[in-house]
Amino acid sequence: MRKEPITITPLHIGGVIMAVTFIILLVFTLIEIFTPNPYGQGLRIDNLSEYVKNLPDDRKDAIFASLYKAAELNIADGDKVPGSGAMIRTGSAKENYNDAAYIYSGSFIVDIEEISHSYQIQYEWSSEKENPNLSGYQVVITCLPKELAIYDDFVCKDMFSAGDLDPYGVVALHLPHYGKTESGE
Predict the structure, then answer these.
(1) Cβ pair 66, 141 in contact under 8 A
(2) Which member of 4, 35, 57, 75 has the lowest number of beta carbons within 10 Å of its beta carbon?
(3) pTM of the predicted model as reported, rounded to 2 decimal places
(4) Cα separation, 31 vs 78, whole angstroms
(5) Could you report the per-residue pLDDT of 135-179, keeping only the tens digit for each?
(6) Rounded CA separation 32/106 (Å)
């Protein structure tokens, strides 16, 4: 019995290329899903990439973890902080780049419908990891003023009111007498 030679057509090659591409994309997706956030649990902002461009993954992770902590601080008894579902409010996102300091900064309002919370998020980052112009707080999450709130009023606690952050820390570090007592210590 004589065997016919195998004929490779462009259809076969296209199928192999598509299968390999699918497997590569699947691997990267699974790695992204199962890679833990180094900052702790996070609350994903589903539309972040629509409003914030070129944000490094470590800043995204820091924002997600900080947002989770803010929501956890304010969650009602018995409720659970969701892992995703937060959305940037349309028209609230602002981004800037300071050429002299090499710092990107921005802010936006995020709404979390599932738990009826909203927060203001401010962030900064630099492509230079040791940039001395960066502040000590590269992600700051604060409660909204009443006029910007869209959910029923709740007693909102943030990094400042919870005592996790010195509200004058960033500015005060540059003041000549910060932290000194009358005796000069």
Answers:
(1) yes
(2) 4
(3) 0.68
(4) 32
(5) 777 899 999 988 898 988 777 888 776 555 444 444 444 444 434
(6) 25
